[in-house]
Specification:
392 residues; mainly alpha; three-stranded antiparallel β-sheet; 13 helices
């Protein structure tokens, strides 16, 4: 059985999208090497390339995963959408009770006997978009009906977000926003979306006001609530605590000193001062080394990928493949834009990474899975009638 020969898995579909993916991976390698070389030298016996080699391994593995996933017609993934969403619930529940606590956040789950850690929220994001795309496609006849069309879908969106929010509020909000966009494109009633979005927005505003007027001592023992408050204070310029504003201060210094054309690869100074420069604030380091030109160029790559995904949507409106491609693309481009906005202090710090650019392991594999699904849609542009899909 030559199921995965090179002729079968070689890149196919939108060539521009493939070029963008490859460009992001190459730029990610440069950024990770620059932001981790000093740290790797200290931690790994004087070998500054150790983290670079690790990143190359995961990117290589991720690219192979992408090729394999994109070689399979995306309609075959419909069968696994419900299974994957329920698996994500199990993983999120396990993380809540048995997850590893890192930086006061219980987001990671360790695989027994292997020792590898991963964030189930990354997997849940892909699983939910796949599930939403399928449900919206098969429920088009009843999509305007609240009980038959909207309620069975929003229950899963709400449950996923609630399971993720306590330890990773930013990811939960990104998933919620992505879900709303997918539902809007999938012809869900705007009135029904507003019924959910309106109260959630009201609760968020009231929560922010409450946090800003609550002393820190009353927030002790409440998980990450105090961290949320400090990040809001930092963004609102209400905090005089330099420890709280340290990350954003150095991120802005990195961007400011980068100028128009930057200091060149490896020329960053702030990488030695900025905590998590290789993940949470890697865009600031990228801007410092490649300047405004490089920073805007990187942003353009993500936006161009989003534009190409919209082209898929226009070619196959209201179909499972179109919703899958636009949903996954929107989720990761939105994550990228929020990461960039954090670096220039346009939004509170959330800890979101930059897809394919930030250092990571299992997150790269999850992102590769998502992009493989997108490229599968690009490869097999949908022509079948979506009425062929029936709810089960």
């Amino acid at each position: 059985m030559n199921l995965f020969t090179w002729e079968k898995i070689k890149p196919a579909g939108d060539k521009i999208m493939w070029l963008i993916i490859i460009a992001l991976m190459v730029l990610g390698l440069l950024a990770v090497y620059s932001s981790t070389s000093a740290l790797a030298y200290k931690k790994n016996g004087g070998n500054p390339e150790s983290f670079l080699i690790q990143q190359m391994f995961y990117l290589g593995l991720g690219f192979m995963l992408m090729l394999v996933v994109h070689s399979v017609h995306y309609k075959y993934y419909i069968k696994f959408s419900k299974l994957l969403i329920y698996i994500s619930y199990i993983l999120l529940f396990l993380t809540m009770f048995y997850g590893s606590n890192t930086n006061e956040a219980q987001r990671w789950l360790r695989v027994p006997f292997i020792g590898i850690q991963f964030q189930p929220s990354d997997f849940a994001k892909v699983a939910l978009v796949l599930f939403l795309a399928r449900e919206l496609a098969v429920r088009q006849d009843d999509i305007k009906d609240f009980k038959k069309g909207f309620l069975p879908i929003i229950i899963h969106v709400g449950l996923t977000c609630l399971l993720i929010a306590p330890s990773n509020l930013s990811t939960s909000l990104v998933i919620l926003s992505t879900s709303m966009v997918i539902m809007f494109i999938g012809r869900v009633s705007v009135k029904h979306i507003f019924y959910v979005g309106g109260p959630i927005l009201t609760v968020i505003v009231l929560l922010v006001l409450l946090l800003l007027n609550t002393p820190d001592r009353k927030l002790n023992g409440m998980g990450r609530v105090k961290t949320w408050k400090h990040r809001i204070e930092n963004f609102a310029k209400e905090s005089d605590n330099r420890d709280v504003t340290f990350q954003n201060d150095h991120a802005k210094m990195a961007i400011a000193t980068g100028g128009i054309i930057g200091k060149g690869p490896g020329g960053s100074i702030e990488r030695n001062s900025l905590p998590h420069a290789y993940s949470d604030f890697i865009y600031a380091i990228f801007a410092e080394e490649y300047g405004l030109v490089g920073a805007l160029g990187l942003m353009f790559l993500y936006l161009l990928f989003m534009y190409r995904a919209f082209r898929i949507l226009l070619k196959s409106p209201k179909a499972f493949g179109a919703l899958l491609a636009i949903g996954l693309s929107f989720a990761f481009v939105m994550q990228a834009l929020i990461h960039m906005a954090i670096s220039v202090n346009m939004v509170p710090n959330t800890g979101l990474t930059l897809p394919f650019i930030s250092k990571g392991g299992t997150s790269i594999l999850t992102t590769s899975l998502a992009f493989g699904l997108i490229m599968s849609v690009s490869r097999y542009v949908e022509t079948e009638d979506t009425n062929e899909l029936k709810p089960v």
